[in-house]
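Issue 218. Parser rejects a valid record. Input:
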Amino acid sequence: MSFTELMEILNNDGVSYLQYTNEAIQYIESTDPSKMNETEKSLYDYTKLNLQRSARIDKSFTPSEELKLAVADIKENQIWMVITENWCGDSAQILPVIEKTASLSGSIQLKIIGRDSHPEIMNLYLTNGTLSIP
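Output the parser choked on:
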């Protein structure tokens, strides 16, 4: 995959943290878990739990002065890409921290894309040959 192709996907399909969170909320509010199979219900439950986890971290995380200074040194425009899914517990714990860190600089744009909807990107970042995220 070329850099141009990656940037096109990020520009077309990448979402902000707010959009990502709102999509997860919309999914929870508009989905009837009683009509799901066991796997779907499990992912639904993880998504619901992860919204709570992320909200807690959103409220409690404060960037350190050291982190603020490090991010202030970033002068060139950057795009930070996160590959995740809303059912991922690890992502729920770290994504709010990444968002708050990125928001410290006008030079950083955070883009979140779905692992399962973009295997062509996820396959570039395998962990020991697996689809582990984040």
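Fixed in the parser; the record now loads. The radius of gyration is 16 Å.
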